[in-house]
Each structure stands twice: as C-alpha cells, then as structure tokens.
Amino acid sequence: MDIKDLNKSQLILLALLVSFVTSIATGITTVTLLQQAPESVTIPISRVVRETIEKVVPGDVITKTETVVIKEEDLQVGAIARASKSFWTVNLGAADNPKEAFFAANAIAIGDGSVLALDGRNIYSDKNYYGSHAGANYGLVFGVSNPYGLRLMKVELTSAEAKKVADDAIDIADVTKLKIGQKAIVLKQDGSGIMQGFFLGLAEIPTHSASTESISTETASSTASSTPVLVEQKIPVVRLSIVIPKEYAGSAVVNLDGELIGIVSLREGEVYIIPSSEIFALLAKKSAQ
Questions:
Q1: Close Cβ partners of 193 (under 8 Å, ≥ 6 residues apart)
Q2: Domain locations along the chain
Q3: What is the mean pLDDT of residues 136-145?
C-alpha cells in the first residue's frame, strides 16, 4: 500500500507510531551511554536531577511566631544600669595622692576619651584635677566649657584604658527628636535618689547675669564709681512633668534607652535641665580648637 492511499486518520496513527518508536530508541540509547560513561560524568548529572526534583517539590514551611512582653519596669532598670556605668567624679588634687584630694563635681563619660563635669562651676583651668571611675584614678586636663556650668575634660589614658572608658561611655540622645510624653529618669550619681517624669518639650528661660563691663558714674564730689551691668540671657532647658529639688543638681537625665537627654543644673537658686544639644555644642567647640 502506498502512503498516498492513507486517509487522514491513518496518517495520524502512523505519526504516533513513529514518534513512539523513536522515543523508545532514544531512551535505550541514553541509558546505554550513561552505563558506559565514566563516573565523573554520571555523578554531576545525577546531582542536577536530584536537586532539580528537590526544588520542584517543596517541603512543608513552618512559621513560628513568638510574643515577647517587655515590661516598662525592665526598661527602667536597664536604662539605669547603662547610665550608671558611665558615672565619674572629678576631684581636686593629684591622682597619686587621693587622701589629700577634694571632691569637685560629678561627671559622666561621653566617649572620645572625655568626661563631662555636670556642675563644673568650681573647676578652674589653673588647678590640678583627676577623675575616679570604677575604683581607678585618671589624670584630667581642663577643656572647653559653657556658661551653664558644663565642663568638658580630657582623660589621660593608655590605649587599654581608653577602650574601657569608651565602652562605659554614655550615648547622647538628640533631644530635638524626643516626643512629648516620653519617660525621663533623673539619676543622682551617689545612688541616693531617682525621679521619674514625662518629657514636656524644650523651652528657653530668661535669666540675668553680671557682665564684665561696668557703667561709670561721677558724683558731685568728682569721685567715680562703677555699677555691674546685668545682661539678660536665655537658658535652653528641658521641661519635665516633675519639680526637681536643688539637691539633684549635677544629676543626669536619661530616657528609657539609657541615653543622656540633659543635665540638672542649679543657677541663681533655680533648678534647670540643660539639654543634650548643649553637650553636642561643647563637642563641636572642642573639635574646632
């Protein structure tokens, strides 16, 4: 029978038969070649097939969700612990003769080998001071200051000591990013007092201070006298929901992350919280020297 005599159905069946026979022949040939091929060839082929199958047929995916409850009390304890390890004291005298020394101010390590005297109005550049921290004494060099009683002092350290001091330094918060209602903790460095309040914002408080200039007056007897000039200043302050007693002057104010947001300062009989932005200004002043 000639192929031209086949109808359409018979042609389709013939094509299927030829395809089937060809597939069987191809399979037999492939198996035979694999059996004859060296092992270095068959192993990668088997690995590719196996890995492909593992990817095509995914396994069960198990998602486990855990709920962790953090109490505010735990945050407060952690913040106090982180801040407390950065506390220093500044003493008038020589580090090698502490028995003859006198307490000058509380201080806090702020990194870069520096400590910040929190109420340093009685610290003078012509005196010798040393710092005490974790049972050790370190020489201090007077640095920059600001009108609000903050004194930045450089610590004389070896490289090993510098790492320890840097590890214990407090982190300084950007007070401009605080939200009203955030919790603030006021810490006395001697551990005798802790106060808690809420952040109410930033403000500027007007105050007066005597200027170095004076006004000369002449009396009827031609004798001259001078009167100090009172200059109005505005002190930047942190406002909290609590009234801080005077005995907390020189204390640190931190948030629940243990970051420094301000320093309690006593000025003209009034208690203020100097914001951390003034500390950044001091650091910038130091870098510019």
A1: 186, 247, 248, 251
A2: 72-168, 175-288
A3: 87
34 pLDDT band (50/70/90 cuts)? low
pLDDT over 70, % of the chain? 75
Name the token pair of 51. 């890995």
Assign 5 to helix, strand or coil: helix
Q: Residue 112 gets which letter from DSSP?
A: T
Q: Classify 175-288 by CATH class.
A: mainly beta
pTM here is: 0.66
Q: How far is it, in rounded angstroms, from Cα 157 to Cα 136? A: 11
Residue tagged 């009683």 (tokens): 149
For residues 145-149, give the mean pLDDT: 83
Q: What topology is assigned to 72-168 in CATH? A: Thrombin, subunit H (2.40.10)
Question: Which tokens sit at 3?
Answer: 């192929």
Helix, strand, coil % in the chain, rounded to nearest 5: 35, 35, 30
